[in-house]
Amino acid sequence: MSDLQIGLIALGVLLILLVLGFNWWQDRRVRRKMQSHFPTSEQDPLLGGAAAAGAATTASGAASRREPGMGGDAPRKEGQPAPVDPGSDADDAEEPDPACEVVIEINFAEPVRGADLLPYMQSLRHVGRKPMRVFAETDQRRHRARVHAGENYASMQLAVLLANRSGPLTAIEWSQAWARAQDMAERFDATIEGPDQQAVLEQGARLDDTCAALDTQVGLTLMLGAAQPAAEVLSVARDTGFVADGNRLAWPAENGVTRFTLSRADGAAFDAGMGGIERLYLLLDVPCAPADSRAFGRMVDVGRDLAARLRAELVDDQGKPLADGSETVIDERLQVLFEQLEQAGLPAGSERAQRVFA
Q: Rounded to a whole number, what is the largest CA-CA distance in the chain?
């Protein structure tokens, strides 16, 4: 074997060692970022109490609620606290809700500009069918419910909803949330922390069981007979007191929360197309509507007014005319449900209830 061949072999061995060393260094760097998970509390903030009689579950006190925000120009609901101006010394009032959300913490090695984070906010809105909310802490230790371009951030928190009407948080959805957090950590040299997956899935399942036992909707139907122009129906509904709410119309309470909704039977928007409307649905979504001693009776009153204006017939969800006094009986039953929702830490019409019953 010539000296040239021996040299080439030695060089090849050296290159292999260099590649193995580089791979080891990369693996060690990733492992440092995947720090050990912080422990979760044995007491569930929402579902830790003993089960109540019937469908309700006793719960501890509800945590304060905060609306989601992905950027400085995110819309704000009526009654929601106004966001703090960027650079303010005051903390934002909104924060994760431990009763229905689980948090993944992202800690940056060095403060990161909000302008650099904002392009990635869109990918942090949902995982599967579960919404996520983003919170952050500035390098001045100020809590933010939104990321602002003009601030620097020491950490971010991803709050993932544990359950909604699509079911409990799944292993796939949790894995997606963790992967999004890990991607942010890789991009901005950060470490991530979060609870154990099994504990998260069990907490989501418990919350889903409670919500399923309390989830109730009550509907009425307006039979218009001959098709009526959508524009005319929309005009009558607005004159009655309904306001726009996506494809449907909403009857708002004094605080702006929707009491019940009106929608077309075909699910289309009221201003969609030129076709007429033959049937309308009134829906009282009990957990999402504010508690009211006449929650159903109020919807019946409005339904009868609409029926008179539209020359329509008001029937129940079985297609039968409403029996005299039926609204009183149903309202009495709903009062029990409102109390059970309150006991479970899900007050009817609250932001938490609207989040998990979405």
A: 107
pTM: 0.74
**Cα–Cα distance for residue pair 281/113, rounded to 1 Å:** 49
- Tell me what pLDDT residue 27 has: 53
- The model's pLDDT over 132-163, given as tens digits with 9 standing for 90+, comes to 999 999 999 999 999 999 999 999 999 999 99
Pair (203, 336) in one structural domain:
no
**Do the beta carbons of residue 76 and residue 68 sit within 8 Å?**
no
CB atoms within 10 A of CB 32: 9
Cβ 200 vs Cβ 102: under 8 Å: yes
Cα distance between residue 321 and residue 313, in whole Å: 8
Amino acid identity for residue 233 in this structure: V
Question: What is the domain count for the chain?
Answer: 2
CATH code assigned at 268 = 3.30.1400.10
pLDDT at 268 over 50: yes
- Residue 193 lies in domain: 37-214
- Name the strand (E) or helix (H) holding 62: none
* 3 state SS of 69: coil
226 plus 292 within the same structural domain? yes
CB 120 within 8 A of CB 184: yes
Residues in the chain: 358
**Structure tokens that stand for 73 in this block:** 């120009």
pLDDT tens digits for 199-228?
Answer: 999 999 999 999 999 999 999 999 998 899
Tokens 């149903």, residue located: 330
